[in-house]
Amino acid sequence: MGSTGRLTGKSTVITGGASGMGRDTVMRFLEEGASVVVADFNEETGAETVRLASDAGFDARVCFQRVDVAKEADVEAMILRAQSEFGGLDVVFNNAGVGGAIGPLTETTEADWDYTFDVLAKGVFFGIKHAARVLREQGRGGSIINTASIAGLSGDAGPLVYSAAKAAVISMSKASAVELAVDRVRVNAICPGFIATPLASGKSMERTQESFARAQPWPEYGRGSHIAGAALFLACDDSGFVTGESIVVDGGLTAAGPELSKKFASTSGRNSRYSGVTKGSTGAAPDLRKLSD
After folding, report:
1. How far apart are the C-alpha atoms of 183 and 177, rounded to whole Å?
2. CA–CA separation, 112 and 90 (whole Å)
3. Which of 7, 246, 272, 279 could be cross-linked to 284 through a Cys-Cys bond (beta carbons 3.0 to 4.6 Å apart)?
4. Rounded CA gap, 7 and 10, in Å?
5. What angle do CA 201, 265, 20 make, to 5 degrees?
6. Torsion of CA 85, 78, 6, 96, to 10 degrees
């Protein structure tokens, strides 16, 4: 893919950048001329992503920062790393995520709820907060992008706690866009549909791709590159008058109506055999409890 240089000279941070949608966005931003802090909880996949970027000739414009987005000090350090490494900050993509709490609502524990909201909602809040401080101080505006989900738009597009957290991301994006507009800082959200990534697929990527391709009107499964393209649009000057928006990238799924519980064996509601939390591509094992029959 030839670079058009739409992000030339831009200093960017991408959380969850070590795999899936985040890694694809890292590579796309680098191709478009950006410098990128790859921020992720998983040091192994983080190092792998930096190696891939270096092998592609981007070694001078990429670095890794380990971050737990649920810890404010980690998020602040991540933002400061962009300043120290690349001389400033222009774009922050708050993309880190986990599957989080699954199972019936009556079996969901406070700890399950807290873990899910800490990563998916509080982590985004910290990212917006510390990016906004720097962008405001610099005085040249910027773009903050948050990964939400179609699960935040519907009552049957994801597990309950995950859906609630993603709805919070959509609301935070709108509210912060209003507050930060005077500083020329744009804030938008991306709502992915079924994207075949390690987080979504577990060990069966091929099966996931096949089922996702059947799940929406568009006849192909969603790829991380589709999200990277949307993030590029929101990061560059082409979207200079776009703020407070939630861009749905789902192959027409929400247009048709998700009804996920009718399309897939449920892991998130009354009929689930398990309760607990999944932890995505963090490298940490899921914490699941088998329910009695």
Report:
1. 10
2. 34
3. 279
4. 5
5. 15
6. 150
Q: Which residues of the chain have pLDDT under 70?
A: 1-4, 198-204, 258-271, 293
Edge-to-edge order in the sheet of strand 100-102: 100-102, 274-278, 287-290
195 within a domain of the structure (yes/no): yes
Q: How many domains does the chain have?
A: 1
d(CA 162, CA 97): 10
- For the domain that residue 222 is a member of, what is the CATH number? 3.40.50.720
In terms of Cα–Cα distance, which of 66, 81, 3 is closest to 36?
Answer: 81
How many Cβ atoms sit within 10 Å of the Cβ of residue 221? Answer: 22
Which pLDDT value is given to residue 206? 81
Whether 273 and 207 have beta carbons less than 8 Å apart is answered as no
Note whether residue 5 is domain-resident: no
From residue 8, give the alpha-carbon distance in Å to each of 33, 36, 237: 4, 11, 11
Active site residues: 162
Contact 185, 91 (CB under 8 A): no
> What pLDDT is attached to residue 1?
41
Structural domain for 160, as ranges = 11-280
| Buried-state track 251-282, b at ≥16 Cβ within 10 A, e below 16 | bebbeeebebeeeeebbbeeebebbbbbbbbb
Pick the closest to residue 246 from 184, 172, 179, 158 (CA basis).
Answer: 172
Tokens at residue 203, please?
Answer: 């060990």
In a domain, 291, yes or no: no
